[in-house]
Amino acid sequence: MKKRYVLIGTVLVILVTMAASKPILRWMYPLYHYRIIEQSASSFNVDPMLVAAIIRVESKFKEDDVSRAGAIGLMQLMPQTAEWIAEQSGLAYDNPDDLAQPQINIRLGSWYIAYLEQRFNGNRIAAIAAYNSGPSRVDKWLKNGTWDGTLEHLDQVPVGETRHYVQRVLYNFQRYKEIYS
């Protein structure tokens, strides 16, 4: 009986050690399109691990992913948002089919993250919430006191999907930083 517990304990230690090893973690948290992510993020002064975290949460790195709402590609950009980004930034974008191309999608999405971080005065939590819910909605929450823009009061965000989204992005952001930085 005692040998069984020793064996089970040994197996558990081995499994925990394996789960914490970099190769296993890199397998669990892949970083596809890293060169594109790095180039786009650095062009707009955005943390590439934040871009990777948003991609993981939005599309799980599926290039041709299309949401029920019509968001397209790795960073799940709505065609209207992509069009607005292109107008504001001067970046290349011709039609919704472009959003299935990683280079275009990640570049537009990275610019948008930079825009949101600037719009919310460097408040990354509010920027992530705005990526999900839209900047006008987050502006309204901040202006009318519904939410103060902090992680500590994230429970005040009236949209459950957005609360959960911010938590998931931040969790994945931390994981990517631990594994790849």
Automatic annotation (TrEMBL):
Domain Transglycosylase SLT: 37-147
Any Pfam family hit: SLT
Entry protein name: Lytic transglycosylase
Species name: Effusibacillus lacus
Gene3D superfamilies assigned to the protein according to its UniProt record, in alphabetical order: 1.10.530.10
Taxonomic classification: Bacteria, Bacillati, Bacillota, Bacilli, Bacillales
InterPro entries: Lysozyme-like_dom_sf (IPR023346), Transglycosylase_SLT_dom_1 (IPR008258)
UniProt xrefs under SUPFAM superfamilies: Lysozyme-like
